[in-house]
Amino acid sequence: MTRGKQKIDAQKRNQEKNQPAKGSQLEHRAAAFKIQCNICMAMLTHENQVNQHYESKHPGKPINPKMVQ
Ligand SMILES: [Zn+2]
């Protein structure tokens, strides 16, 4: 029953993405966050990489990455 909510979340995220970045370049750069594995602390740069990483390195573990900037 989470599909509807996921869709809304995705729409929201898209809206945020499409909004013009206000403020400085610094903010713009901050948007390019990095993702860190909470288990082995590997740095991942893309959401797809996160799933792949957890599947190959920590199969069966919950996907719970940390966001770092
Ligand atoms: Zn890891």
Automatic annotation (TrEMBL):
Subcellular location field: Cytoplasm; Nucleus
Domain C2H2-type: 37-58
Region (Disordered): 1-27
SUPFAM superfamilies per UniProt: Expressed protein At2g23090/F21P24.15
Basic and acidic residues composition-biased segments: 1-16
Record keyword Transcription present: no
Domain of life from the UniProt record: Eukaryota
Cellular component per GO, a single term: cytoplasm
Cited InterPro entries: MBS1/2-like (IPR045230), ZNF706/At2g23090_sf (IPR026939), Znf_C2H2_type (IPR013087)
Keywords, ordered alphabetically: Cytoplasm, Nucleus
Predominant location category: cytoplasm
Name listed for the protein in its UniProt record: C2H2-type domain-containing protein
Organism field: Heterostelium pallidum (strain ATCC 26659 / Pp 5 / PN500) (Cellular slime mold)
